[in-house]
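Exercise 7. Given the components listed, write out the predicted structure of the assembled complex. Treat all entries as one system.
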Amino acid sequence: MKNKELKKKITINYITAAMLVITLFLVFFLYGYEEKVMNEKVITLDNEISNLKSQYNDLQSKSADIKKYVNMWENISENKKTISGIRLDDITEIVTKTAERYLITDSQIKVANIPQLVQGGIFNCKTISVIFTKVSINFSAINDIKALMFIDDLFSRIPGYGVINSLEIKKSKDYSTEDLIKISSGKGGNIIGNVEFTWYAYRQKEGAEQNQKTQINKENDAKKSQN
Amino acid sequence: MFSQKTIVVTVGNNGSIVNFFSGSSISNKIFLEELNDTTKDELKKILSKNKTQQIYLLLDTIDQSYKKKFYPNIHKQDVKRLVRREMLSSGDHTSLQNFLIFDKKDYLDAKEKSSKRWECLFVSASNDKKISDWVDFLSDLPNQFAGIHMMPIEAFSLCQKIKPKNLKKPSEPQNKNLKLPKKDEIFCLILQNKVSGFRQIVFSNDGIIFTRVVDYNISSNDFNEKYEQDIYTTFEYLKRLSPNSNIEDFQVINILPEEALKKIKLSQNIELKIINYTPYEAALRSGLPNLLPQNAAFCDILLAKMFAKEKKILKFTNSKLAILDKLYFTIFLSRYLNLGLLLAISLTFVSMIFSIMETKNTIHIKETLKYSSLGELNRLERSTIQGAAMVEKEKEIDIEKAADFGRIEEFLGTKNPSFTKLYLDLKVLREFNIKLNSISYSIPEFQAGSPPLKMNRQTKFTGDIINKSGDIESLFREFDSFTAEIKGKYNKDQVRLSEIPRTIDFNQKYYSFPIDFTIIQNR
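Answer.
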């Protein structure tokens, strides 16, 4: 009778032991799972913090850039802020006016192709698109210095930027006494020049203007609500 | 499991006492003349309140046999096996049997030890009906029946407690390296128990040697005579077992009632060394002051308490008890296993909680850091982009637009050289009388769709060098000077110059000579 009771106790004890072993495994499993989840969270947070720090550093650098560009903006000439794109009328007018200033004659302008979009690197702008085309100008000048000054002045006036691909200025013939007299009176042009350049111009980026307006409206609304 | 409460049942020929010990005192004691159904029921009732306490059966019966036997000097385990085999082959399977092997004496030298035989004491007690009834009754109780023990053997603990300390002090040898042989001290404990009457138990320093039940009548006039006579008889018996025994080494310790001690003290015997204690004094000396009343006449309770308190010397068992022992041992193991598992679970759980708390704290810190970083980022964003609003001609300029324009200005604004400046820099041409015919400029390998950061700019000048004297030496000199001047001036750039051919006619006059040079700039 007592033996049975003791055996029963032993059985209960071993069942309890088995349950405790299972509990221990469950606790271990739970421990491991919790630790894994927590560690993943810590890693995610670390990554987020690292990302934020990187963004902060980028922004600091951007802040310095913005300061630089804000200062630069004031020094950029108006024609370089034009976003009218490439228009032949504009370049013709500028060439004509500049040519008059430097006694340039026989200027002929040729636009080689239709404007194309420049992409990649710094040309991926947020607010504007950069387009380009090739332009060739032939002209006659009374001397080499006038020709060079014409070129320098012309490129400071054109909307956007012109990058000279080639320039040639040469004397068409040896000067005679008559030629020298003509030159001294500001007439005649035995210096012939040809300049080929890539004309980069700005165009308003599609959607950028709309976004800008929307943002301004939002800011105005916010100001109104604050008032 | 850790309770100090113990129940000791002392069984003798005159009756039995059930002692309920709690700490150093006795909480209850029941004397039973015989174990019958009525007493069993009463005991069951009482014991049902103390189910968790272990029960020991301490036999103080007359019919106990102590036989000494010597075995050759073999390994102790082999001796044990040998003794067990002998016990099994003895044919007596009814009585309670066990044995004690006394260790080799520490004070013996190596030679003596090697020649020494093992001393084995066989102990047996008849398993009569009275004992069987008790064993069966105790085995069926819910309490753990912890074992059967012999009172004379276990009384050694009491003897050790009350024996006089440093009984013999051998004189210090002059040569300390010389080890004097130490003789065994022999103690004869004489006591009176309620369940079995008077008893002599003879102990050496190792344990029991033998025991005798004696019969005295304290009130009788010949008590002293009989008492001394019994001591001498015991000593004579001892001498038969150990011929070297000396009466001087024989210490008698009485634990007897005051009346008996008074008579013993009147004895004129100076040969016997006798120490007298009343049961109360013995309990006091054993560190149990609250166990017995001062007028206590018997030692049953003291012996039972000392047995319960001290280390048990020899356990007797039968087949039923052996099975019970195994089952209790398994329960004990499984309990400790469960306890260990509970501890492991608790520790893991606690460590998990601490670990999770620590990680949560880390997460909290990191989240705080994240939000502070986010805040800083937002502040910086506001101060840089939103705060850096620009107004030009009463019109707000988008800062992003300014940045876009600025970047392109940086890149494309420097692509063209200033030709006017370049021309003015070449005043040196006049010094060398060079008349230019053409100026050409180009940027080879330029791709308009993806303009490079740096590009090769080639500016070529073509003309004639004027040599007024027409002298060829002057021409060479002017040419060389010009070459040196140009290369010095454009030392950071690459300069290519035409040369005067080696086949030139030195006899001819050259008033002018064609010249061209190219400046290659990588910017």
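Discussion: Residues 88-208 of chain A form a domain with the Alpha-Beta Plaits fold (CATH 3.30.70.60). The beta strands of chain A are 105-111, 116-118, 128-141, 161-171, 191-204.
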